[in-house]
Amino acid sequence: MSENEIIKGLMCPGCGGSVEIKEGNNVLKCPYCETSLMVMGDEGVLQYHVKSNIDREKAKVEAQRWFGKFDKDRKLKAEAQFTDVFLIHIPFWRAMGKVCGWVFGNIIHRETHSDGKGNTRTTTRREPVERMVMEDYLWNKAACDVSEFGVEEVDSSGISGHLAPFDFYNVEKQGMIFEPTHSRTDAAKASEEWMLQKARDSVRVDEVLFQKLHSLDKKLSIVYYPLWVLRYKFRERNYQVVIDGMSNKLLYGRAPGSTLYRVSMFVGSLMVGNLILTASAKAFNKDNVQNAMKAIASGDINKLTQFPGVR
């Protein structure tokens, strides 16, 4: 995780001087009048805003580029008509924290051996290990219902270095603002569970025998993130795409598919299936197949398992 962001744009109520504060902190001292200050958001949650650096035309260009992909209808790029293009600001819960602790367990090694007769044998070996965890994590999740837009989380790289204090009236001039509806308690619980799970996965222990992990110094805030919503019409049907307001990447979209692409995928899957069946058939020679059929008919399972490929 990168270092805490420096938030600018705040003013000291005592002298009017410009002050800065690190993300996650809420106590500072004015460098001019040395007044101690406390920064608080609604219900004690600090709120930030990320300003979009993508304009309407760039968002349209990205959407049209997506229209021209092979898996889309071949006439989509030429005939699609945009009916509405607007900027929205979605609130995302953002949690910063550190996970510390230990994980004890085994790394499992599996080795397969074969003899000249085609018989195979798998052995398992356990290697005892202990792993120390001390990592910083960043988590974000939509703080409202985003089923219409299909964006549950955003890339943290689009947030880092672009945070500014949230000013409702200034942000509203740029685009529509959605209010948070998911509770702070649920966000705190979900972020902690996510961080602990990421810490467990990072140690790469196959068989965990004992673990003791703690999340420390966790700070929770809300970030209003910009998304471009583009609605368009194609052959009397309406569709929608959502584009990241920072990276100009398409995050969600619906479009009519290409018939040629679907047929190609179907034929390709048939070819792959045929290749697998052919390769499997070659694993048996004619004698083995005949003997295996005799073993099945006689019910001799022990004899059947002696043939290569039957285990």
Give me some keywords for this one:
single chain, about 300 residues, alpha+beta, eight-stranded mixed β-sheet, 12 strands, about 40% strand, disordered C terminus
Notes on the protein architecture:
Helix content is 27%, strand content 40%. The C terminus is likely disordered. Strands 5, 6, 7, 8, 9, 10, 11 and 12 form an eight-stranded mixed sheet that branches. It contains seven helices and twelve strands. It folds into three domains: 39 residues, no CATH class; 215 residues, no CATH class; 42 residues, no CATH class. With 311 residues, it is an alpha+beta fold.
Poorly predicted runs are: 301-305, 307-311
Number of structural units classed as domains: 3
- Please give the alpha-carbon distance between the first and last residues: 48 Å
| Secondary structure tally: strands | 12
The helix tally amounts to 7
Class by SSE composition: alpha+beta
Dominant shape: flat
- How many whole angstroms does the radius of gyration measure? 29 Å
